[in-house]
Structures are given as structure tokens and as C-alpha cells.
Fold Diguanylate cyclase (GGDEF)-like protein.
Amino acid sequence: RAKGAGRARYCLFDEEMGRRMLARRAMEKDLRQALARGEITLHFQPIVDLATGRTICFEALARWYEPSRGLVPPSEFIPIAEEIGIIVEFGNWFLRRACREAARWPADIRIAVNLSPLQLSRADFIQQVEAALAESGLPPERLELEITESVPLVANQAMREVLCALKSRGISIALDDFGTGYSSLSYLRSFPFDRLKIDHSFVREIPGHGQTMAIVKAVLDLARSVNVRTTAEGIEIEPQRIWLQAQGCSEGQGYLFNRPMPAEKVAEFLAGECTISQRQPHVATPPR
Ligand code: C2E
Ligand code: MG
Ligand code: MG
Ligand code: MG
């Protein structure tokens, strides 16, 4: 009896695996056409100066609206795009699109664009960045590139040289999702990052989790001592903002301030913020 049940389970599992594999193949196929079909867009989330409450930057975040699946989150489609190699094409498009949008914003507002390590490993990456800047007219000082520590990339001399070349052109480099990778400290030592983004998973445990708070405090002290700016990701509640600011975190990002918004909302948002911040610097805008 047990043997039979085992075999039945095995068959079910097998079918389930087959179904998943088919769904995955279909997703890959649709993803290859998504850019051409105009299904991919960027949304923009404000990054706020914690001391003044003003927006100083927007992070560009990829969105895929697929007619039958609805909104597919980047956590699902970016890894697939990386595996099938189209992330390079996507990433170049994101870069151009983000620079073009940012060039229309006030001159003191910057744009942060996420990079896949695969983009950095391409020989023409610097040319792609330069083309995006030239086409849009965006000054390099207004562009920040976010890289994640999910793969050991600055250990790689070639990639380190690419990052240095970008930096020497006036572009800033942020280390994204800090604390979640496996080589955070060696990263900081091997490349002069301009900014460190403290991952949401740490911010979520503030206040209350003593151990996490001690680690975040130490990271903020460390960043300050090596002259690196800090952004806390995923700030959702006021006590998080207050504590992070008190510990010397320079910028914040999260639903407390605003959710990512479509490009056409940005100008309106900035105009509204102007009026609000004159009255009360720390007021959070209600969710749309
Ligand atoms: P990330 O770069 O760390 O982006 C921050 C993520 O946190 C975004 O999720 C954002 O919507 C979300 N977030 C912001 N504030 C809050 C908050 O208060 N609470 C919570 N729970 N979440 C918040 P999103 O847009 O789903 O992006 C997820 C990840 O996908 C990004 O993480 C990034 O690693 C990747 N990604 C997104 N766009 C791109 C892109 O254009 N290129 C590449 N290579 N990766 C991208
Ligand atoms: Mg990011
Ligand atoms: Mg991040
Ligand atoms: Mg993150």
C-alpha cells in the first residue's frame, strides 16, 4: 500500500514539474517579445533626503504588464531575462528610457538605474551608458548606477575597471541590497562606492530587533567613516525613518514616502511636494 501511494505521489509530482516547465517555457517565449510589444515599462520611486524630507532622486524599477498574466513582478522576470540573456537588451533599453525621463525633471533630481552584472561584463557597456547620456542630454552627475552583490563582481579586475571608468566620467555607483550578499566588506574595500543601500530585510526589523539594529548602526558608522552615503530601502513606518535618521542614515526610500509611480506622475508629484515641503518638511504623501 505504502509503495503504491508513493508511486502515485511520484506521478503527481512529475506532472506538476512538467506543468511548471511548460509555464516557464511560455514565459520565456513571451518575455522575448515583451519589449517589442511595449509591455515593459519603468516606474519611478522617490528617494528622499531624511534630513529635509525632499525627494532628491528616483529609482527606475522595471514593470512587465503581460495581457494574460497581469503584472509580473521584476523578482520573477529579471532572473529569467538574465538566464536567457535578454537582460542586456532590456538593461540598455531601461538605461535609455530612464535617462530620457530624468532629463525632463528639475536639474537637482537624479536618477538611479539598476544594472545586471551581465550588462557590466559586456565590452560595449560604457558606450551604451555614454549613448544614453548623449541622446538624452542628461549630465553624468545626475545618473547613478545600482549594482547588487549577488555575484562576486569587483573581485573581477575587468569589472572593477569598468566601474572606475564610469566613476571618472562623473557617474555615481551604488551598492544595492547591502548586507544580503556574501562579500559585503570585501566589496567596500575593493571599490570606492558612492552609496550603500541597506536592504529592506534589515529595515523591516527596525524597531524592535536589537541585533539587527546594532548591525545597521555599525554599517552606518562604517559608511560614514569611509565617506559613503547611505540609503535605507523599504521604510514603511515613521519609527523606522526617525531611528535611521538619528543613526546618521542620509537617504530613505519606501512606502512611507511613496510607492513607485508611472513616468507621467513624476512631474505632478514633484510639483505637489514643493508646496507640501514648504509647510512641513516631513509630511508623508498618502498612497495613491
Ligand atoms: P531593488 O533594486 O532593491 O528595488 C527595491 C524594491 O523594493 C522594489 O521592488 C521596490 O518597489 C520595493 N520597495 C520600495 N519600497 C518598499 C517598501 O516600503 N516596502 C516594500 N515591501 N517594498 C518596497 P521591485 O520594483 O519589485 O523590484 C525588485 C527588484 O527587481 C529590485 O530590487 C531589483 O533588484 C530588480 N529590478 C527592478 N528593476 C530592475 C531593472 O530595471 N534592472 C535590473 N537589472 N533589475 C531590476
Ligand atoms: Mg535597486
Ligand atoms: Mg535595492
Ligand atoms: Mg532590495
User: Anything to note?
Assistant: The first helix runs from residue 2 to 34.
